[in-house]
Amino acid sequence: MAEQKKNKGAKSTKKKKKRSNPVAKVFTVIGTVILSLFLIAVISVSIIAAALTVYVMQFRENTPIDIDLDSLDLAYTTFIYGYDSEGEEVELASISRAADRIPVSIGNVPKHVQDAFVYAEDVNFYEHAGVNWMRTFGAFLNEITNGLIYGKRQGGSTITQQLVKNVTKDESQTWDRKLREVFRASDLERYRTKEEILEAYLNCIGFGGSTSGIQAASLKYFGKEVSELDLAEAACLAAIPKSPETLNPFADLEANRGRQEYVLGAMLSNAAISEREYEEAMNEELKFRDPSKDPTRNEIQNWYIDMVIRDVTNDLMNLYGVTQSEASDMLYNGGYTIYTPIDIEMQEKIEAKYRDYSTFSDEVLNDPPQSAFIVTDYTGNILAVAGAVGEKAGSNVWNHATMSPRQPGSAMKPLAGYAYCIEHGLTDWSDPQEDSPLEIPDDDNPGETRKWPTNYSSNSADNVWSNRMFYTYEALERSLNTVSARLVDKAGAANVFEFVQNKYQFSTLEARDAYLSPMSVGALTNGVYLRELVAAYQVFGNGGKFFSPTSYTYVLDPSGDMILQHKYTPIQSISEDTAYVMNRMMKEVVEGEHGTGRAAKLPHVEVVGKTGTSQEWRDNLFVACTPDYVSGVWYGYENNRKVEPGTYYGTAELWKRIFGDIADRGETAEFTAPKTVNNYFFCADTGDIASTRCKTYHQGWYTAKDTPELCKHGTKMNDKNYFPGLAEEEEPEDGEHTEDGDEPAHEDNGENEDE
To answer: How far apart are CA 650 and CA 371, in angstroms?
Structure first.
């Protein structure tokens, strides 16, 4: 019995072992595998997490957090203004290289406009710290599952992240970029308020085409300031940034309407607007600005705007010490406001004249020369300019009035030898001058001399001189090169050069110009700009004062601070007396019997001026002063070729065709003589102040220091204080005379070619 129990127990034990071993083994294996996998996973995740942590920390340290909203590199539109004849401010142009953008402060953006963008783009904008982690993580999962979660690519950017992207221009489609964006957005939120971030965002987002920023968009689509937008209009604009080229109302009104409804719905669901406001906005019929009336940013600028852009760019270079390229970027992207002294009506008239070839010639020319014109007032304000003949080829093209230095020829004479000698008492109105050449060294034959200069005669193939005596005013009237050379030689070419350089601010003069030929007949090394030549002639109409020419009065930055301002600081280049005597001499150029500028005479307004012609008519000029304006015209070929005589009208006539109708309607008819200038009659025989015994005499103008002595004419006058003049029209006691007649016979050499 006991043995049976023992055997039975043994069988039972053996039987139990046989039942439990397979299960235990399976669970043991499974458990071991699971545990091993889990441990491997934990270790792997730990390693990956540690590696990622190290990578992220290193990436964070190496990521520049350089988002400074005070110096955002945004492209704001620059505006250029002038004033019309009624004194009303007129927008002349708006320029922008990257975008049309007008800065606006958040204080001028209504709350409903702010809310429209917040609830359209970033509902939790005021709650998050720069990054919406839920949306970012969702976007990450959607990206790695290839859109299985949301069905399409999902963005996770907040307004702050969008701002960072716009500012940094970091748009690469990589996770590195996204990580940089997250860090920068978080950092930006630590030291900037939500209002500052939203303001920057609204000023930089795109609204279709080149339009960026809420203010520019408001003007473009509705023709009103952002502060004037109502709720429906705000939602319309807030609908655009998601896809600016397809959702703007000018591109697809229906698509814009659909997105607008979404924006209004988001505002309603977030209690930003009431049900009534929602319904009113949904039912409002938007009134858009006519796109055809929106000034295109691609239209060709006029000549004046080109000049302003160039001038302000150069002054920004000097102000900030930057390159021309950098200054140009500042101007086009800086959101400046520029005010100009342009005469809008005058500019339009002159440009119209320059588009019409019949202004220059009564024939159709196969190869016409080019031409330029510029006019200023007597404080240096440039009122109008034209830089080339015909239709303007584009914006910021070559302007011959401001960018082409050309030879001034005889137009240099009044500024140089004549003004210097009158100013320093070396000559006067009726001082006899010899029309004969100087003896100068002959460079081609060392040790020998040659006769120089010559005068040009329209009646002869040869250059001529008469070897006769002419009064100083006559020499200028006839543009005698010989007399100009003699005056410069008498004064000293170096002295005249220093005088010209200091008094008129020509930018092109060189030391090599301190010689007879440059100073007497305008044969300068580099020539002069028409703009600078015309500005120099101011001194003959405003009492000897020189003002630097300017195309703008002042420039404001986006904050309204003045960064550039033209200073109207005059230089007293010559005395008031000298200026008026020169003025009267140049009147003889226009009104004298032998004047080279007779064709410029006007019916109602005085014109004084001087022609200038370089050798072989390569450069042809006339610079004129009227009581209200200083102006000048040039024509010639760009490559300095010879201009055949008769190709264009003469420069004096051309000036009149371009500007005569404008000048003749000037407010002032005559120049005013200063009280210190003496107007006397001079003896036609001696050039001295006429006495009662002088049989013939003519009118002259004299400064106090260069008034000649009383003509003795063989008889000592009893009354030494008697000077017949305009104020004393007493007849001389004996002898017949005429006021302007009985001049000595002189050969008419015509207009002179200047060497």
So the answer is: 12
Grouping H, G, I as helix, E, B as strand and the rest as coil, residue 675 is: coil
Residue 244 makes CB contacts below 8 A (sequence gap 6+) with 206, 207, 208, 209
Q: Are 601 and 622 in contact (CB under 8 A)?
A: no
Residue 566 to residue 327: CA distance in whole angstroms: 18
Burial 557-577 (b: 16+ CB within 10 A, else e): bbeeeebbebeeebeebbbbb
The predicted model gives 73-84 an average pLDDT of 86
31 pLDDT higher than 80: no
**From the centroid of its chain, how far is CA 418?**
35
**pLDDT band at residue 194 using 50, 70 and 90 as cut-offs:** confident
27 membership: H or E segment, kind and range: helix 2-62
- Assess whether pLDDT exceeds 80 at residue 75: no
Residue ranges of alpha helices (H) inside 548-672 are 576-591, 651-663
Query: Tokens standing for 645?
Result: 């005589």
> According to the model, what pLDDT value does residue 635 have?
98
* Averaged pLDDT for residues 30-56: 63
Domain ranges of the chain: 29-62, 71-293, 300-408+529-670
As to burial, measured by CB atoms within 10 angstroms (0-12 exposed, 13-18 middle, 19+ buried), residue 265 is middle
Measured in whole angstroms, how far is the alpha carbon of residue 287 from the centre of its chain?
35
Answer yes or no: same fold for 71-293 and 300-408+529-670. no
φ/ψ of 490, rounded to 5, equals -65, -40
Rg (alpha carbons) of the chain, rounded to whole number: 42
CATH architecture of 300-408+529-670: 3-Layer(aba) Sandwich (3.40)
Question: Is a pLDDT exceeding 70 seen at residue 149?
Answer: no
- Measure the CA–CA gap between 300 and 422, rounded to whole angstroms: 47
Q: pLDDT tens across 374-394, in order? A: 999 999 999 999 999 999 988
What's the Cα-to-Cα distance from 667 to each of 606, 607, 623, 628, 670, rounded to whole Å? 11, 14, 20, 7, 10
Backbone angles phi, psi at 555, to 5 degrees: -130, 130
Give dist(CA 202, CA 441) in Å, integer.
74
DSSP three-state, residue 398: coil
71-293 is classed CATH 1.10.3810.10: yes
Residue 583 in this model has a pLDDT that exceeds 70: yes
Mean per-residue pLDDT over the chain, rounded: 83
Residue 465 φ then ψ, to 5°: -145, 150
pTM of the model as a whole: 0.75
Q: What is the pLDDT of residues 483-512, one digit of tens each?
A: 999 999 999 999 999 999 999 999 999 999
Between 342 and 53, the higher pLDDT residue: 342
Taking the C-alpha atoms of residue 325 and residue 366, their distance in angstroms, rounded to an integer, is 38
